[in-house]
Input
Amino acid sequence: YRIQDVGKPKAEVAAKRVMERVSGVNIVPHFCRIEDKELEFYNQFQIIVLGLDSIEARSYINSVACGFLEYDSDDRPVQETVKPMVDGGTEGFKGHARVIIPGMTPCFECNIWLFPPQVKFPLCTLAETPRTAAHCIEYAHLIKWDEVHSGKPFDADDTEHMQWIYSEALKR
Output
């Protein structure tokens, strides 16, 4: 992500960057809720690459990919049904990447304990794709407060300040 990419969907930016760097590759970005796609959409791929912001979204795709998995009579994964996943993400300057091969490596759910509890939310999530009440509250607190009350410090002990945050979060 670069300065000129702010406000653009990550899927579109990532697809463009990869196509610029890897000759012959064609990537069609999809900017929507992953749950809105039919299962057959995911089944058409040989590999699934994730760049998701939430544990819930990763868990959903994990269950989709693992749901395609079939076993033969010797209890071995049928290769044609294995949908490897490449999961990657960043928070600030920290990042991770892992390959998950259903039926062969631990799945996402098996490793979920590796994630530290989330205490901060990415600003792109707050500004563009809020999914929880906490996202809306943080948006009102971190973004809207300064827009409306420039320079005035927020006081969590002031009931008027808290009521304003509550009202703005409800709008969001």
In short: The domain at 32-114 is CATH 3.40.50.720 (Rossmann fold).
